[in-house]
């Protein structure tokens, strides 16, 4: 094997070496979300997406070496790469913001009140956005934008996030996230999700997203971890 072959073989973009992240909480201790649901979601949907992304990356590397491959064939797999990457990352954010008591704390309530008029107004819009996806597919995402703005976004699939935004709170609204516990009653699942949000993780993400612009947002309580 020559040097060029070795470089190609270990190139990170084609390594296909992603590993699933373990659940950051005890799935037996959530309120209103069963261990069976959480483990099925993690094992089948999240781990399945990791496995698929690894296969796609390796296949892309092989296809790139074929000079006769039609561009549309490669394009189909590149679309799959984007979908699988989005699924992996959004699932990691989703599981990462679960596992606590759903209490936002004064600092996060102030931050969201400034952006939406009141914390209850933010929550009402977040819930309404989530329920608008019920029976279909997608994600509801509270995100921090490049100018420091906060919005709840409606994401139809794993690829439709707002460009340049940083997800802070992610809610999976695909049926696999709730059907085992709630059937078609997606609104009850949204209620249960809100009771288990880890707001310390949400505030950590906000601090991380805002830190390059900390001088502009000193009034936001982001110089120390909100909670």
Structural description of this entry:
A 3-stranded antiparallel β-sheet has the order 2-1-3. The chain has helices at 3-10, 35-64, 71-96, 106-116, 119-131, 179-182, 186-195, 199-210, and strands at residues 139-144, 150-155, 166-172. The protein contains 8 helices and 3 strands, in the order αααααβββααα. By secondary structure, it is mostly helical. It has a domain at 106-220: Iron/manganese superoxide dismutase, C-terminal domain (minor pseudopilin epsh fold). Helix 2 (35-64) runs antiparallel to helix 3. The model is unreliable at 214-227 (pLDDT under 50).
**Number of separate strands:** 3
CATH superfamily of one domain: Iron/manganese superoxide dismutase, C-terminal domain
Count of discrete alpha- or pi-helical segments spanning 4 or more residues: 8
- Average pLDDT taken over every residue: 91
User: Which CATH architecture of one domain is right?
Assistant: 3-Layer(bab) Sandwich
Helix content: 40-55%
Comma- or semicolon-separated keywords:
227 residues; disordered C terminus; mainly alpha; 50% helix; minor pseudopilin epsh fold
Structure summarized in a few sentences:
With 227 residues, the chain is mainly alpha-helical. It has eight helices and three strands, in the order H-H-H-H-H-E-E-E-H-H-H.
């Amino acid at each position: 094997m020559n040097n060029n072959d070795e470089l190609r073989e270990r190139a990170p973009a084609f390594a296909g070496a992603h590993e699933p992240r373990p659940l950051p909480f005890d799935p037996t201790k959530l309120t209103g979300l069963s261990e069976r649901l959480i483990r099925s979601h993690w094992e089948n949907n999240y781990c399945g997406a990791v496995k698929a992304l690894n296969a796609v990356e390796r296949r892309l590397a092989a296809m790139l070496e074929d000079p006769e491959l039609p561009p549309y064939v490669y394009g189909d797999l590149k679309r799959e790469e984007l979908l699988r990457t989005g699924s992996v990352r959004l699932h990691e954010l989703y599981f990462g913001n679960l596992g606590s008591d759903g209490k936002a704390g004064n600092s996060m309530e102030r931050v969201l009140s400034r952006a939406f008029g009141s914390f209850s107004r933010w929550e009402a819009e977040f819930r309404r956005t989530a329920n608008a996806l019920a029976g279909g597919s997608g994600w509801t995402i509270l995100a921090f934008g490049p100018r420091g703005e906060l919005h709840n976004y409606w994401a139809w699939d794993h690829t439709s996030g707002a460009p340049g935004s940083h997800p802070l709170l992610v809610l999976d609204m695909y049926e696999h996230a709730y059907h085992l516990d709630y059937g078609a009653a997606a609104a009850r699942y949204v209620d249960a999700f809100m009771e288990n949000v880890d707001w310390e993780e949400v505030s950590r993400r906000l601090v991380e997203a805002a830190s390059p612009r900390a001088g502009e947002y000193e009034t936001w309580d982001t110089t120390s971890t909100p909670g």
